[in-house]
Design brief:
By secondary structure, this protein is an alpha+beta fold. Helices cover 21% and strands 24% of the residues.
């Protein structure tokens, strides 16, 4: 390939802030999961963090400027499987944060704003050399007192601010009223907001790349800084940002080590809580292991690219060097054998092999084995026999078992994280170039017995086809013209980003090379470059199309269609799209769009009997009981599903007022009134970008008034209505309404703009400061009925500080009856794998009323992918302060439900967050120690329960499993608290790491189950406790506002 420099007057620039694909399991993986809350797609609101605008932003140094010493590498602990997040429940909770769109630019305008090209390289049809752009950083800022004037850290850097003004249903911002016996009065309270100061992200300078209009990237704070919530102003007051530059915050509590300073408490047996005993089937196969000594070897393959050929290279090398040995290889770095592979004193054994790649070209590799020790499987047997703690599981031996289980059964599968997929005969089309593959998950589980957990999985894979075919068939684009200005090109560019393709180097030959797509560039007839000789001297100039026609004897069929920039980002390698083919079986770590996700959930959600039949089919295909590798390592695996003892708890009585509590049936109940209704006095309704002929807004108003009064609300006639508002006019309309002292606004939004909801919430909450309730246009035109309006009013009443329902006094768990309890929920939401620069968001909710319905929210922003809440101590200190202001006393007990922690992170949570709870309390009252119950909530696992192999029904709500498949001596249990509307119900696992009050296990199970009935948005029990649900929703609301 001749060398050359591109002779194009336009500069070269690519997508700013492009990030590499994260390793691990793709967020696009979706298990068959049910909906535990009724679909209310007509309601678009999600809970906010306050009902008033915040004032200041604080940043804190997370690392304290200290570097940690490296520790010897330990076996990787099991991490909780990442499945697709539950999206929205019809309430507008989409996956990653939405971004503010830019004004659309033409190709010429984009090229004019781009920089120089990177250095030229060979092995490409076209190459150029842009200069790298320097990253831009902004100094961290910290909030000053209210009287301080703003002082920008870097003058040109704009600091976006997030000011949500709408409370989570049932969540209370900062207090202003005196404490009450049960609930704060409705419609009262002052808000606590949160903010974020972002820095400018590093910008890259790739070659001339076509950039269709795309949202501006959400930029993360610099690593090591945490952004905290701060006290806000009351609803409707003006907002004046006051930010000053300060020094670094003090260092937080040191990062915990792998060794935990605490012990997990033993289970306290109960037997007082009434329950109905039963048995259920779970997707576990019982397994027997022998106390063998297994030799472990480190495998080094040079070169270590391409990754997909490494298993083949290892197989060939093993056949040459150790043809008679049975070896289990993890396809990465470790292999295991029952016998030593060589008996000499040599530390390493090396062999050179040659294999043919996909193009039948020879490739040479060097494979080296190194002795790294012996793994004793007897440690697992001793751990089960002695009921060892969850903090010190024999991870090396468990990892060895997992590798053995994979060997010999999954060669024909495509690995994605810890799941394995195979293309079905007739895959489901997910749209936008993806199709749904089915797969399986398997993992060794060790409690008092040994099991294999087997489950089915689903994931979207790019369809193998020519890139032009994908462009035409899947994206409806015209290949005979440039993509600049074509409708839908943004979706296509998202699809090709980081996509692996095969390129025909000779144009019409058979040899192919594999590349990763970076972006779209100029068409081949417009892109000119200079061909240089061996000394780098320019010889002649031509276009890409001319080059392929004269040098490769290949005429371009679509000369107007853009080329694709592929390969390393410091090189310019361009190909016409017609010469590229999408590689088969590539697992992408990308977020599915809304349509793809809905299709996958619909197709994957199957009744329990169908799911069980799929798992049985997987077991038959795997032939576990006949596998020779398993027999060699003395593994005996049963072929029947394990039946486990279970119990069904009684549902609580729900107080909805009127002196007559209701009894839930199969996790649901009817409510025709609110326990404490709010007042909807000064309100209005507007319609944004909707067709007034399709929406009878007057009918909606009358239904709100009629049903609101039926449910006990004081509802006046609307003081403001306008049904022909554009998105551009909305802010001024809301400002006018606020000047007329309106406090609440119903907004009907169009379904044509997918970002309409996020735009409206930003304007209403960040710019104006008004509570809103969004309703979709399609709901108003097609689905508006009494039940729909009641669902909407559930949210409205909570936003106005009303109380929808509570536990009846006769159903209060024993641990709540004595009073003085603060129930806490905590969660951290991470960006999708392809959003490396987006920060993680942590939220902590805490009850401030006697019956645990009203919650206050604290939030912070921290470095991406960090599961431990760094600022937990300060957040808990603020929560305790709020609780004390309502009760004139600190709580005697704190019950924490912490979501999203895997088994390998138990010690970190205990060393960091559990310690933070006690430290926060000691800062208020150092003379007394609070009683803490700390439960870890785990949803992302693959355990499922079934009534029977032929029974299509889900298990009953309230089903608890706390024997056999859980830890025998620790407080560890599974609970199915909800009735799955569709698909197979996923139980939630709870594991206590602290129980200072020695609360019996059955009382903890009852408390957990009852808290699932206090979710304010529906009259159903949800799948995990309400405080944790609110923390999860608050995190996603924060992402929506960024």
């Amino acid at each position: 390939m001749p060398r050359g420099k591109k002779k194009n007057k336009q500069g070269a620039k690519g997508d700013a802030g492009e990030s590499s694909v994260a390793e691990g399991e793709s967020s696009a993986t979706v298990q068959e999961q049910p909906q535990d809350v009724p679909s209310t797609s007509q309601v678009q609101d999600v809970p906010s963090t306050s009902e008033a605008k915040p004032t200041t932003v604080t940043t804190k140094d997370e690392s304290g400027g200290k570097k940690e010493k490296e520790t010897p590498k330990e076996p990787e602990p099991k991490k909780e499987e990442k499945e697709e997040e539950d999206v929205g429940l019809g309430l507008g909770l989409g996956g990653g944060g939405k971004k503010r769109p830019r004004k659309k630019k033409s190709l010429a305008a984009q090229a004019a704003a781009q920089g120089a090209a990177p250095a030229a390289t060979q092995a490409a049809p076209v190459q150029a050399a842009p200069a790298q752009g320097a990253p831009v950083q902004a100094a961290p800022v910290q909030a000053a007192p209210a009287a301080a004037q703003p002082t920008p850290a870097v003058a040109p850097a704009r600091q976006p601010e997030y000011r949500p003004s709408e409370p989570i249903p049932g969540a209370v911002p900062g207090p202003t009223s005196p404490p009450t016996d049960d609930f704060p009065p409705p419609g009262k309270g002052r808000g606590r907001g949160w903010g974020a100061s972002m820095t400018a992200s590093a910008q890259q300078s790739p070659p001339v790349v076509f950039n269709p209009p795309s949202p501006a990237p959400v930029q993360s704070p610099p690593p090591g800084f945490v952004q905290r919530s701060a006290t806000g102003r009351g609803r409707g007051s003006s907002y004046e940002p006051k930010i000053a530059v300060v020094g670094a915050a003090p260092a937080p509590t040191p990062r915990p080590t792998a060794v935990c300073r605490y012990q997990i408490p033993a289970k306290v047996l109960g037997g007082v809580v009434p329950a109905y005993k039963t048995r259920v089937v779970c997707n576990y196969l019982e397994m027997k292991i022998q106390p063998l000594k297994v030799y472990r070897f480190d495998v080094t393959i040079t070169p270590d690219r391409p990754k997909k050929l490494l298993p083949k290279v290892f197989t060939v090398a093993k056949g040459i060097k150790f043809p008679k040995q049975v070896i289990s290889f993890d396809q990465r770095k470790n292999c295991y054998s029952l016998n030593p592979l060589w008996t000499t004193s040599d530390e390493r054994c090396t062999v050179h092999v040659e294999i043919l790649d996909d193009n039948d070209a020879k490739m040479s590799f060097e494979v080296s084995w190194k002795k790294t020790g012996v793994v004793d499987l007897g440690t697992i047997i001793n751990h089960m026999k002695n009921h060892g703690t969850s903090l010190s599981t024999p991870m090396e031996a468990i990892q060895c078992i997992d590798v053995i289980l994979q060997q010999g059964t999954l060669e024909s599968y495509v690995k994605a994280g810890r799941q394995f997929f195979k293309r079905p005969r007739n895959p489901i089309d997910l749209s936008a170039g993806l199709e749904m593959w089915t797969g399986l998950f398997q993992s060794a589980i060790f409690t008092s017995r040994a099991f294999i957990n087997i489950d089915v999985a689903h994931k979207g894979f790019p369809r193998q086809q020519n890139l032009v075919d994908a462009l035409v068939n899947d994206f409806r684009l015209n290949p005979k013209m440039s993509l600049d200005g074509q409708r839908g090109v943004e979706l296509f560019q998202q699809f090709v980003k980081s996509l692996r393709v095969k390129a025909n180097i000779a144009g019409a030959g058979t040899r192919q090379r594999e590349y990763i797509c970076n972006g779209i560039v100029e068409p081949p007839i417009k892109m000119r470059f200079q061909i240089s000789d061996a000394n780098g001297k320019p010889v002649k100039e031509m276009t890409v199309a001319q080059y392929f026609e004269t040098e490769k004897r290949c005429r371009i069929r679509y000369p107007e269609l853009n080329c694709m920039w592929v390969g390393p980002k410091d090189k310019n390698i361009y190909y016409p799209m017609e010469m590229l083919e999408i590689v088969y079986g590539q697992a992408l770590n990308k977020q599915l769009n809304e349509k793809q996700l809905s299709t996958m959930v619909r197709e994957a959600a199957t009744p329990p009997s169908d799911r069980l039949a799929k798992i049985k089919e997987v077991i038959r295909d795997m032939k576990y009981s006949e596998n020779p590798c398993f027999k060699h390592f003395k593994l005996e695996i049963d072929d029947k599903f394990f039946q486990v003892d279970a119990k069904i708890l009684e549902a609580p009585k729900i107080d909805i007022g009127g002196g007559r509590p209701v009894d839930p049936r199969r996790g649901a109940w009817q409510a025709n009134r609110f326990l404490r209704a709010s007042s909807l006095e000064s309100w209005g309704m507007v319609a944004v970008d909707v067709d007034p002929r399709n929406c009878d807004c007057g009918n909606v108003i009358q239904m709100v008034i009629r049903l609101g009064r039926q449910m006990g609300m004081s509802v006046n006639n609307p003081a403001f209505t306008k049904f022909n508002v554009t998105q551009h006019e909305l802010r001024s309309v809301l400002m006018t309404a606020q000047e007329n002292r309106l406090t609440f606004m119903f907004i009907i939004i169009s379904g044509r703009d997918k970002d309409a909801y996020h735009k409206i919430k930003r304007k209403a909450e960040l710019e104006v400061g008004m509570l809103t309730q969004c309703i979709r246009e399609m709901t108003v035109s097609r689905r508006m009925n009494d039940q729909t309006v009641r669902n909407i009013l559930l949210k409205v009443n909570s936003k106005l500080m009303g109380v929808n329902q509570a536990l009846d006094n006769r159903s209060l768990p024993q641990c709540l009856k004595s009073g003085g309890v603060m129930v806490v929920g905590a969660d951290v939401t991470h960006p999708s794998p392809d959003q490396m620069s987006v920060p993680s968001i942590a939220a902590v909710t805490a009850s401030i009323d006697v019956k645990c319905f009203v919650y206050h929210i604290e939030m912070s922003i921290q470095t991406p992918k960090n599961e431990i809440i760094v600022d937990f101590e300060n957040m808990m200190f603020d929560q305790l302060k709020i609780y004390k202001s309502h009760h004139n006393a600190l709580p005697k007990k704190i019950f924490v439900f912490r979501d999203g922690v895997s088994e390998g992170q138990f010690a970190q949570v205990m060393n960091s967050e559990l310690v933070a709870v006690h430290k926060a309390y000691a800062r208020h009252d150092p003379s007394r120690k609070v009683e803490v119950l700390f439960l870890l909530v785990q949803k992302r696992h693959h355990t499922r329960f079934f009534m029977g192999e032929q029974n299509p029904q889900n298990v009953e709500p309230g089903t608890v499993v706390d024997t056999h498949i859980v830890h025998p001596k620790e407080l560890d249990f599974y609970l199915v608290s909800h009735q799955a509307i569709k698909g197979t119900a996923r139980p939630t696992r709870y594991h206590a790491v602290c129980n200072d009050g020695n609360i019996p296990s059955d009382e903890v199970e009852q408390l957990t189950y009852y808290l699932c009935h206090l979710y304010s948005r529906c009259t159903r029990a949800v799948s995990y406790p309400t405080p944790t649900y609110y923390a999860h929703l608050a995190c996603f609301r924060a992402k929506s506002l960024t």
